[in-house]
Design brief:
The chain is mainly alpha-helical and 249 residues long. It has helices at 8-15, 23-39, 56-68, 84-101, 104-111, 120-126, 130-141, 147-152, 170-176, 181-186, 198-201, 227-240, and strands spanning 2-5, 45-48. The radius of gyration is 23 Å and the shape is elongated.
Length: 249
């Protein structure tokens, strides 16, 4: 895939993203490029072209810009598309606030495991070591050493993750935080078909339905936790050491 632009500044910024302003925009572009290469095998190449080199739409856009900046011109209501990253961040913040507006018990039942009460929880923890069972319990309840919970008990000044993108919830820590991107790739987690499914990776059942109306996780009565997926996500947590206690020096 070849992308053309008449902006030399944009190309120079992409070539040296750490030395330019607008880091969140550059990071979003590079993340998309890496995702396309990793998931679809698409190679993306950026090329510079001279401005207005026979591009009719480019000429038309500049003409409209000239008209808009004339004296006494009347501004029109813009129709601007939202950046995908902005839309994702806004939706994420909305869902996080909605989760936390419910009671702690109700939030846990609705957003983590809709199969509760059930025998699967005892089976789930009995198959794990004491340390792994403790880690899984922290991830399933959200009561752990992540900023979102620490801020709620006044043990941290802010709930925002060190990456600066959003609150450091369990979902953000496991699936979205760029600080652990390399760790996820090394453990080959992002290539899994169910990657990003919060309930699935924590051994829980969800009543989410797919396009065909069938349960994505299968029928509740026949469903069983995927122990291989759970152990992989626990390997990730141990590797990051993010939930370990470190004494202040």
């Amino acid at each position: 895939m070849v992308l053309f632009t008449d902006s030399q500044a944009a190309l120079k910024s992409l070539a040296s993203p750490r030395q330019q302003s607008g880091q969140f925009i550059l990071r979003s572009i590079l993340d998309e490029v890496q995702a396309l290469g990793r998931i679809q095998g698409t190679k993306i190449e950026f090329r510079w072209v001279p401005a207005h080199a026979g591009v009719k739409l480019n000429e038309a856009a500049n003409e409209q810009a000239r008209i808009a900046t004339e004296k006494d011109s009347t501004p029109q209501q813009p129709h601007l598309p939202r950046l995908a990253t902005v839309a994702c961040r806004e939706d994420t913040n909305y869902l996080t606030k909605r989760e936390m507006s419910a009671t702690e018990k109700d939030s846990f039942r609705r957003h983590i495991d809709r199969a509760i009460p059930g025998k699967h929880t005892r089976t789930l923890y009995d198959r794990l070591s004491k340390k792994d069972a403790s880690l899984l319990a922290q991830l399933r309840t959200g009561k752990c050493r992540l900023n979102h919970y620490l801020a709620r008990i006044n043990a941290a000044q802010t709930e925002i993750c060190q990456c600066g993108r959003e609150a450091e919830t369990v979902r953000h820590f496991l699936f979205r935080c760029p600080r652990w991107r390399t760790t996820r790739n090394d453990l080959q987690l992002t290539s899994q078909p169910q990657w990003g499914e919060h309930s699935y990776w924590l051994g829980a059942w969800s009543d989410r339905r797919g396009h065909g109306g069938q349960y994505v996780y299968g029928e509740k009565e026949k469903w069983k936790p995927d122990m291989k997926a759970i152990k992989k996500i626990l390997d990730f947590v141990r590797t990051t050491r993010r939930l370990e206690w470190t004494p202040e020096v």
